[in-house]
Structure formats: C-alpha cells, structure tokens
Amino acid sequence: MKHFAILALASAALIPGAALAQAQAPAQAPAAGQAAPAAGAAVTTGATVYDTSGGVVGTVESTDGTNAVVNTGTVKAAIPLTSLGAGAQGPVLAMTKAQLEAAAGQQQAQASADFKAKLVPGATVYGTGGAQLGTIKSVDASGVTLTTADGDAVLPVTGFGPGPQGILLGMTAAQLKAAMAGAAPSGGAAAAAGTTADATTATADTTATTQSAAPAKAKRKTR
After folding, report:
1. How many CA within 13 A on the CB side of residue 151?
2. pLDDT, tens digit, for every residue of 19-40?
3. 3-class DSSP assignment, residue 11
C-alpha cells in the first residue's frame, strides 16, 4: 500500500475555497431615491460589479456571453448576465457581497455532500487526461484507497472532484504512476536496511580488531 500526497490539481472544483456557484440574483427594489439599474448591462472581463447600494461585490473574472464569473475574493460565482443591470459605475447585481458569498457557500456545501456520497467502493475514477485510473477500494478517515494496475494507493479525499466522466482525480495517469513509483519505502523496509547496515559495520569492526591483534601474536612467537 502506498501513501502519498496529490501532486497536481487540474480543476478549481478540486481546490477548497474556490467555489463556483450558479447564483440567481433575486429581484430587489432600488434604494430610496435611486433609479433601478437598466437591464442588459455590457459586461467585460475585469469590470467591477456593484450592489444596488453602490457597494463592491467583486470583479468579473470571465464571461461566456451567458454568464459572468464574479470573483469576490472569497468565492467565484457564475452570475447570469440577465441578473446584471447597468449602473452609473458599472454592472449592478441585486445581491450584496455577503449575500452572494453566503449563497455560494451553501451551494458548495450541498455539492460537496452530494459528491462524497458517490465516493463508494467499486466506483470508477478517471484522471485529468480522461484515462481510467482505477476503482475505489475503500473510503475511510485515512483517505480513499484506489486500486490501480500498479497496486493500491491511498489518496486524500480533497484530491477528488466531479468530472465529465464521473469521479475525477486531479492527476493524469502518468502523474499517478510516477507518484506511486516514487513513494517512500515502508518503515519495515527502512528498518531492515538499517539492520543490514549495522551488521556490515559490526563485521568491519571485527575484521579490523583481528588485523590489529595479529602483529602482537607474531612478536610473542619471535621471543
């Protein structure tokens, strides 16, 4: 059995704290004396998103023409462009930064619970390159035991996430193979190596003692 840490993660979905939520902004009335933001805001990467009171919500990290990924500094949330209005300063969202982060946190917790329910013995695991890496043998406090063509390996639960084919491990097949091949020897093997080294040292010491005693015998015989 080989234990080692995940060497690479290929998706933000596998990184704790990088939640990507699909947030649907609720309709909210504008503050007193403030005009409602116009719909259909022109959203560009790098733009600052504000709430209806003028507070900063976050920055647009990317957009695909349908959603805008807003980074609050704590979470990343995919906001439908239809939920963003056009304000005097830039895009306006009918949620505050705290409300968006709370919604994203709840969604991440639910998604995490749903995913962990799929980490069961017999489930197939794929690598970031799309190759099948092996099947789950067991899941316990020490991590997920994955049975591969090269043997069993125990990996942390945080290294797994949802992928297009099912359960995804944040490593390619080549990275997993290299990590398993480079795993440190077990304690028993190290102890055995130490015992062998001690025995070799003891043999060398005995030989040295015999050689140093030989000249003394020769002198006594000469007398």
Report:
1. 11
2. 455 555 544 344 434 444 444 5
3. coil
Residues β-bridged to residue 76: 20, 71
Task: Output the six-digit token pair for 217.
Answer: 């015998």
Q: Are 93 and 120 contacting, i.e. CB atoms less than 8 angstroms apart?
A: no
173: three-class secondary structure by DSSP: helix
The answer to whether the beta carbons of residues 93 and 49 sit under 8 Å apart is: yes
Q: Are 59 and 46 in contact (CB under 8 A)?
A: yes
CB 57, CB 51: distance < 8 Å = yes
**DSSP state letters, 83-145:** GEEE-SSSEEESS-HHHHHHHHHHHHHHHHHHHHTT--TT-EEE-TTS-EEEEEEEEETTEEE
User: Which residue(s) pair with 168 in the sheet?
Assistant: 126, 161
Read off the DSSP letter of residue 81. G
Give the mean pLDDT of the chain. 74
- Distance (Å, rounded) from C-alpha 46 to C-alpha 49? 9
Phi, psi values for residue 42, rounded to 5°: -80, 110
- Identify the DSSP state of 95: S
What domains, with CATH codes, occur in the chain?
47-105 (2.30.30), 119-183 (2.30.30.240)
